[in-house]
Give the backbone structure.
Amino acid sequence: MRVGGGWNAYDTMTTLDSPNGALARDAAGVLWKHDVPAVAPAPPFTPKQRLQGDWKRYTALVGTGELGRDRSADLVARDASGQLWLHQGRRRTGPAWNPSLVPDTARTPVGGWNVYDLLV
């Protein structure tokens, strides 16, 4: 199914644990969120929402399941030195039926992961 155009504006993308949508980073380092609509039938993703900047410092972003023991999907990010960082998921204010999950700007170091050329 065609999801839409313009995705080449991003230099990296990852999905979050279902049904939390997708994250995409543009060339300026701004992180964008594409939620999954709560009501069907609908396109696979809602229009993009700007989250925050300063994500260009990372060489890889990977959406994960719950790692922080708080029952929310999380995001791990690797910086150029190989340090892996955990950004715990947090619920952003929204409709009660669809509180958007986003990565927190606070981060926790996880360890050195520069020996790997791919994180999935």
Q: What stands out?
A: The mean pLDDT is 80. Residues 7-112 form one domain.
